[in-house]
Amino acid sequence: MRKRSFKGRVLFMVAALVGPALIVPGPTLTQQLAQPTNEIALGSSPGGGGEGVAADSGGGTPTYEAGGPESLAYDGTHVWVTRQFRDAVIRLRASNGLSGGSFAVGKRPVALIVAGSNIWVANLESDNVMKLRASDGVTLGTYAVGDGPGGLAYDGTNIWVANRNSNNVMKLRASDGVRLGTYAAGRRPLGIASLGGNIWVANNLDDSLIKLRGSDGFRLGTYPVGDGPFGVASDGANVWVTNFFGRSVSKLRGTDGVILGTFAVGHDPAGISFDGSTLWIANSGENTVIRVQTGGAIVATYSTGKGPFGVVFDGINVWSANFGSDSVSTSNTQAGNPVVQ
Fold it and tell me: 40 with 319: CB under 8 angstroms?
């Protein structure tokens, strides 16, 4: 069947066209933000202290070089953001959006995960992952992985890395980065999440999820989902996957992979995260982030900058990484202060 690509939207992804999935129409919104979220423009300097972050009130066109923010993580104090075309990660104070530092990493960082008191970064073109101390950004280790690491998960003890070009998944011990195993995945594994001692991986070109046993990487099942699966998240009982070309999100039962529902969302849904009660999904094709109940109902829509890919909730506010406008959007009304500290 004819294949489609992200060309013109995203520079680094290709996905396949497969048969249609049954989609439940999205419910009427029960809440709609009257105002867009605050948008914080990201500066162009990849190293050193508080450099590289400026605020944008939304009134004018900011001046900056494209950094390609794609992924976010929240460590309890700061929101961390990858800037893949600047080979850096930055952190913003969740309380006010001010800079907490910018830190040089490997080439094209595209994924982040919090593991205890550390931040792990996947460097797509360096073929490695890095472990940074969250308190000060100091690099604690750099570990070689497969070709094109682009997805990260943490199971409480180990870091799991999805290598999108070598079509496999690697398991690293979080304490010291020692590689414990390498396991075959499908074609172009992207999103990855941990649930109940097992690891779930989205195979973007196979339109499927696989379930690996966390103890030894044994494949427990392969499950068809929608068109172009991208991001994966767990709600504690079920696994959710965004279907980028399908404009939908699929919910699978964690015990056996049975599809419990496929729900219409926005255009080009990418990043997804769970906040303890609801899910957040970044619709990269229509510049919104939506909040979704575990039953599939959309309960809120937030406008963002251009091309949001990553999304995270800090317990009070939602944040998105906007690939197309080199910015971060947040519902925090205190963010966006032009003074950079």
Answer: no
**Closest alpha carbon to 15 in 25, 23, 4, 7:** 4
4-330 carries CATH number 2.130.10.10? yes
DSSP string for residues in 85-122 = TTTEEEEEETTT--EEEEEE-SSSEEEEEEETTEEEEE
pTM of the model: 0.84
DSSP state of 1: -
* pLDDT over 90 (residue 59): no
Give 196-201 contacts, CB < 8 A, sequence gap 24+: 196/254, 196/255, 197/155, 198/254, 199/153, 199/155, 199/160, 199/169, 200/232, 200/234, 200/239, 200/241, 201/151, 201/162, 201/169, 201/232
Q: How confident is the model at residue 115 (pLDDT cuts 50, 70, 90)?
A: very high
Give CA–CA dist 55/47, Å, rounded: 18
Distance CA 262, CA 280 (A): 15
Instruction: Report pLDDT digits (tens) over 206-251.
Output: 999 999 999 999 999 999 999 999 999 999 999 999 999 999 999 9
Helices and strands counted in the chain (H then E): 0, 30
Q: What is the DSSP letter of 56?
A: B
Cα torsion 126, 127, 133, 134: sign: positive
pLDDT tier at 41 (50, 70, 90 boundaries)? Answer: confident
Q: Are 328 and 91 in contact (CB under 8 A)?
A: no
Three-state SS for 151? strand
Q: Per-residue b/e over 111-145, b at no fewer than 16 CB within 10 Å? A: bbbbbeebbbbbbbbbbbbbbbebeebeeeeebeb
The CA-to-CA distance between both ends of the chain, in Å, stands at: 52
Q: Is the pLDDT confidence value at 21 over 70? A: no
Domain boundary assignment for the chain: 4-330
